[in-house]
Amino acid sequence: MQLSNKQILIIFLLGAVLTIFGAIMKIMHWPLSSLVIIVGMTFEAASGVFLIFKMSRKEDKKDGFLDS
């Protein structure tokens, strides 16, 4: 499965939103806040792995991040 850079960015932003929402839930002592934080940070880590893997396999290193 080949992900474009925009898809990787969307996964990262979704993880960031979940992490921030989980932190707000944690401050308000709502249930399942730890699970939301874990899921959000997992999305962020997965998008970072996808991006590093894609950048290491890229043949032409001249184009920018959002070009593909």
Describe this structure in words.
This protein has one domain (5-55). 71% of the residues lie in helices and 0% in strands. The protein contains 2 helices and no strands. Helix 1 packs antiparallel against helix 2 (33-57). The radius of gyration is 15 Å and the shape is elongated. The model has no long low-confidence stretch (mean pLDDT 88).
What are the SSEs and their pairings?
Elements: H1 5-27, H2 33-57
Helix pairs in contact: 1-2
Features:
single chain, 68 residues, mainly alpha, 2 helices, elongated
Integer-rounded radius of gyration: 15 Å
Mean pLDDT: 88
Shape: elongated
Name the helix and strand elements from N-terminus to C-terminus, one letter apiece.
HH
Quick overview of this protein structure:
This protein is an all-alpha fold.
